[in-house]
Each structure stands twice: as C-alpha cells, then as structure tokens.
Write the structure tokens for this entry.
Amino acid sequence: MPTRRASLILPLLALPALMACSPAEPGPPPLGEAALAAVAKSPGVPRERLARAVDALFVAEDSAETRAILVLHKGRIVTERYAPGYHENTRFVSWSMAKTVTAVMIGMLVADGRLRLDESAPVPLWQRPGDPRGEITLRQLLQMRSGLRHTEAGDPPYESDEVRMLFLEGRDNMAAYAEAQPLEAEPGRKWEYSSATTVILADLAAHALTTATDPASRRKAVGDYLRHRLFEPLGMKSMVPEYDAAGTLIGGSLIHGNARDWAKFGEFLRNGGAVQGAQLVPKGWIEFMTRSSPRNPGYGAQTWLNREQADTGEIQWPGAPRDTFSMNGHLGQYVVVSPGQQLTVVRLGRTNDGAHEPLRERIARIMALFPKG
C-alpha cells in the first residue's frame, strides 16, 4: 500500500517543476530605438506604454502611413517622432485643418468690428434685391449650414464640388464658383460639410481687409493679417498659405506648416485663444467654435467635436473626454485637443479616406494614457 501511494504522489510533486519548464507566454516584442527615443524620459505616464501606443501608428497596417506624431501634455512635448524622410522642419499640407485657421481669422475680424456674425454675409452677388442667399449669415457659413448647393467627396470625384472648385473650372476664382451656387435648403436649416463654404469665408476676409480687387493686393492683405495677428505671435514660423489666381486664400484646404507649428496652434486653441498671457482672439470666440452647432452636435464652427455626428452617429474620438475637439484634414491630418487633459496630439501622414476609424482609435488610445483631469 505505501508503495502504491508513493507512485501516485510522486508525479503530483513533480508537476510544478514540469510546469516551470513549459514555454512561457510570449511577451510584447522589444521596442526599437526610435520608438523609445521619441518619448521624453518622464512623460507623466508609463513611458514604454506611451512609446508602444505611438509606435503602433507607424507600424500597424491600419494606420499607414503616419509621417509625424507630436504629443504635448501641459504645454510640454512628451512625444515627437517622424517617419524616415520627414523631420521637424518638414512642412505638411493641412488639407481641411485649414478651416479652423480660417475660422480664427474670421473671429479676429469680428472682434475688430470688420465683420458681423449675425448679419447678412456681405457677398456682393447675394445683395441683389430678391436674392434669397442674402439671408445667409456669417454664423451659418461658419457652422456649415448656409443651405447652398454642394457635394463634397462625391463619386466620381471629378463631379464633387470641392474637386471642381479646387482643380477644375473653379480653380482660378474659387470664391466666384462657391458664391454662384444656388440654395438647396433654407439658410440655417441643413448641415452640410463644404470646403466651398470656407473659401467664401476667406473671400469675406479679403473684402474686409482691402478694397483692392487685384490678386496681389488681396494676397498681401490676408497674408499680412495672418502673419502679424496670428502666426508670428504664436511663433508659427513655418506657415505658408496658398492662394488662387484671384488672390483668395484657399482657406478650406491649403495651408502648409511643420508639425511643431500645428501643435502650437492646437495649444493656442486649448488655451482659449491666448498665448503667453496675450488674448489674440476673444475666449468667447473659441468657445463658439467648440460648441455644438444647431444642426450637428458633432460640429462647431469649422471645428469637429467629440459628439455624435448628425449624419452618421459616430464619435470622432472613442473613449476620449467629451470636451475633446479636433482639426481634421483629408488623408488623416489631425490636431486633437483635450482641454481637460491639457493634451494636444498632432498626427500627419497619408491614410486613405474611408479608412480613418482605426487610425482615430489608435490616437484615442494614446490620449487614454493621460489622466482625464
């Protein structure tokens, strides 16, 4: 009997040793030098977790092709990384992130008394007696609810209004193309994303700044205003706006700047329109830009909000605080601002439209590492 009991017990005693010899669960792959070097030594959150979350944006197929990432927490750069061939002096095209810059310029002109938010938008073509477009206000243009006929990102692309305006028959005088469109809805009643609307805003800025109609004077008036009132005070030295042949700022699509300067603009918005104690645009204007518009809770004034989109019901930044807002551009250009977290995230690159959801989820995972305030 003792011999039989021992024969049963001995294998049980050996079991822990056998288990210790079994292969361990594989851990995460080691981080490359570039991944860890891109993160500050004391980022305020677990350094390796942040490095891995950022690294995923560069190596994961669903986030390709990320070219630059910048994360600022409490005004300090805690992550900065570039893909091969890009660096801190590379200028990146804004695409539709430019719309938020244009909105800030309009806010400055309203504060200067040169434009009125709730009066008829001063487009000369619309001021003819009986033209219903004369009812469109500056507020409605800013909130993408002018009612003007427009198709953004249509199929086929060459029939989209923004393509026709930017690259085809409207390219030499984009404002004329945009302002000639008839109404398809009563002003204020319908939300519709429109790059043409922002070109109208840029044209109004030029009219407010100069009575000259020649292209050179219009470019100079708007360029000087942006430089002296916005870019220079923020230290955004890399910024290069583009203009069409008529001298109108292509304010919905084409402003170029490096990642650090886009981050400075995000921080400016996070701080309510102030930099180093100087209020460049009224704080109330930034609050207006980041408050839900009447026809779309997920959109403010030329700025995207972390609320349900009226047309799709989607949330832009899943899991991020509801006060998060962002500048969104074609092919996955993003400046994401979370005021409560004191956080600004810049992602620049090239990800095909229609494939941005995984990219936004990965950016949201980076944000989730930081305390919610």
The radius of gyration is 25 Å. The CA atoms of residues 109 and 115 lie 6 Å apart. The chain is about 35% helix and 10% strand.
